[in-house]
């Protein structure tokens, strides 16, 4: 595998379910990100991890819980979501958080909350 | 309050002609600007970038222009090809990337 991979690609869950999204980067990067893309809205940054430490939480509700066990893996744990949380969730990585280098994105997880 | 705006949700251009995608921003602290391209069912991929100290950067068929006084950014694609059909996002960076809403470009054969 190369680049940034995300699983699952599609997820349908009820409001009482607990599920997790997984992201893995094979680029040797030190920073990883979760973004949310809702219809007709810009990508919204949710969380930033730099060298496994969370450096930013963009006022995300606590029903979204990130986890970064190492620089290559990032998880987003989901529980008691709302229908308005249905969106495309994108993971990205970059060499470091503050550099000018571009971010590399995974293909995303299309989440539907019923 | 959207700091990065792409006011045209869609654009159609004849194959071989020039495509011009526009982006406006409000925050003068942005120091780097990037364009990303997104195909359906894929994540955005980096296309081209420009530092705030420059006014033009060219890479093959793609050129990005920056007008800091107008806080305006544009991406020129020439000649346009059918494979260029995608959604294009501009993004601006200070401590984080702030994205526009995207412009869907359709190249007509």
For the sheet with most strands of chain A, the description reads: 7 strands, mixed
Cα distance spanning the termini of chain A: 32 Å
Order of helices and strands of chain A: EEEEEEEEEEE
**Oligomeric state of the chains present here:** heterodimer
Written overview of the protein:
With 114 residues, chain A is mostly beta strands. Helices cover 0% and strands 56% of the residues of chain A. Chain A contains no helices and eleven strands. Chain A has strands at residues 4-7, 10-13, 18-25, 31-37, 44-50, 53-57, 64-70, 73-79, 87-94, 104-105, 109-113. Chain A is globular and about 40 Å long. Chain B is 0% helix and 56% strand. Chain B has strands at 4-5, 10-14, 19-25, 32-38, 45-51, 56-59, 62-67, 72-77, 86-93, 97-99, 103-108. In chain B, the strands form two sheets. In chain B, strands 2, 4, 5, 9, 10 and 11 form a six-stranded mixed sheet that branches. The radius of gyration of chain B is 13 Å and the shape is globular. The model of chain B has no long low-confidence stretch (mean pLDDT 95). The interface between A and B is medium-sized, with 20 and 25 residues.
């Amino acid at each position: 595998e190369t680049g940034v991979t995300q699983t699952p690609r599609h997820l349908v869950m009820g409001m009482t379910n607990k599920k997790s999204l997984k992201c893995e980067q094979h680029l040797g990067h030190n920073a990883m990100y979760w973004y949310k893309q809702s219809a007709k809205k810009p990508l919204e940054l949710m969380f930033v991890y730099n060298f496994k430490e969370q450096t930013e939480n963009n006022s995300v509700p606590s029903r979204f819980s990130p986890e970064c066990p190492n620089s290559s893996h990032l998880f987003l744990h989901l529980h008691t979501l709302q229908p308005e949380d249905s969106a495309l969730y994108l993971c990205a990585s970059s060499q470091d958080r503050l550099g000018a280098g571009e971010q590399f994105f995974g293909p995303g997880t299309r989440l539907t909350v019923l | 309050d959207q700091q990065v705006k792409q006011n045209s949700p869609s654009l159609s251009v004849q194959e071989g002609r020039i495509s011009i995608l526009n982006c406006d921003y409000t925050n003068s602290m942005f120091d780097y600007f990037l364009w990303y391209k997104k195909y359906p069912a894929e994540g955005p991929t980096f296309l081209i970038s420009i530092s705030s100290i420059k006014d033009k950067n060219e890479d093959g068929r793609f050129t990005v222009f920056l007008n800091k006084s107008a806080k305006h950014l544009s991406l020129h694609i020439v000649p346009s090809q059918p494979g260029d059909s995608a959604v294009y996002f501009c993004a601006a960076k200070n401590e984080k990337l702030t994205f526009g809403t995207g412009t869907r470009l359709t190249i007509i054969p």
